[in-house]
Write a structure and sequence with these properties.
Blueprint: E1 3-7, E2 13-15, H1 45-52, E3 55-56, E4 69-71, E5 75-78, E6 84-89, E7 96-103, E8 106-114, H2 122-135, E9 139-145, E10 148-158, E11 164-176, E12 179-187, H3 188-191, H4 198-205, E13 207-208, E14 230-232
Parallel strand pairs: 1-6, 3-13
Antiparallel strand pairs: 2-14, 4-5, 5-13, 6-7, 7-8, 8-12, 9-10, 10-11, 11-12
């Protein structure tokens, strides 16, 4: 697995190799895996998350000596074969804005936000995303998902050739203890959920580390570059999204 850092409008990047983590069963911390596809269909929402992930930092404490994990601060990514890890950064400040998991036929953008203890943040965020898509001439459709209601968004985009096209994304809101993880799937995983697909399995491996400090709801949980990141002189172009 390759780690890359790249700003929106710059070719500067850095990379780091980590050992691959076998796909298949989820690690439940006891040595016995729980397969997402084997859970009953009525296991949804928080019960589903608690069974298969993604995990809260209190449920899966981060081991700084684990060579299969990349600690990005608010999100810890577990290495799996079949995808690359890239970071979207602000070109001027260098701050990490989002985590990108990129596979051959799809991608997932990850952002984690602080949330209140007793109120769903995803319901209001989902409504805002749908309204924004409509204002921009696109559509947003509710879907029933294992973590709750998802959105399939179709938006008009400009292709590299200057033509107008349609980009489809599937946006999943996963709520944990005082946090919301927003996952935007592009490409293959935007069409239909596939529990065994590499990017969906990688999302279930994630650990969200909110921290104990006070944060207002909707504030993004800070991300950082991983330790030991090093610059790369020349890197392949990112896939169009």
């Amino acid at each position: 697995m390759i780690f890359r850092r790249r700003g929106k409008d710059t070719s500067q990047s850095s990379e780091e190799s980590t050992p691959d983590h076998p796909s298949g069963a989820e690690d439940d911390g006891s040595g016995e895996g729980v397969r997402a596809a084997d859970l009953d269909a009525d296991v949804t929402g928080e019960d589903y998350r608690r069974a298969v992930g993604p995990w809260d930092g209190s449920e899966r404490p981060v081991d700084p000596d684990d060579p299969t994990s990349i600690d990005l601060g608010g999100i810890v990514v577990k290495g799996r074969p079949g995808f690359e890890l890239r970071l979207q950064t602000d070109q001027q400040s260098g701050d990490v804005q989002a985590v990108l998991l990129v596979a051959e036929d799809g991608a997932a953008e990850l952002r984690a936000f602080a949330a209140s203890r007793n109120m769903s943040l995803w319901e209001s965020v989902r409504t805002e995303i749908a309204a924004d898509a409509s204002r921009r001439g696109g559509t947003a459709t509710d879907l029933d998902g294992r973590y709750g209601t998802e959105l399939r968004v179709k938006a008009q985009v400009r292709t590299p050739e200057g033509k107008t096209g349609t980009q489809t994304s599937r946006i999943v809101g996963i709520e944990g203890p005082r946090w919301l993880l927003r996952v935007t799937y592009l490409g293959r995983p935007a069409m239909e959920p596939e529990p065994e697909y590499v990017l969906e399995a990688a999302v279930r491996d994630l650990v969200v580390v909110r921290g104990a400090g006070a944060m207002p709801p909707r504030e993004q949980i800070p991300l950082r570059l991983p330790a030991g990141a090093r610059p790369v002189a020349d890197a392949p172009d990112e896939p169009a999204q």
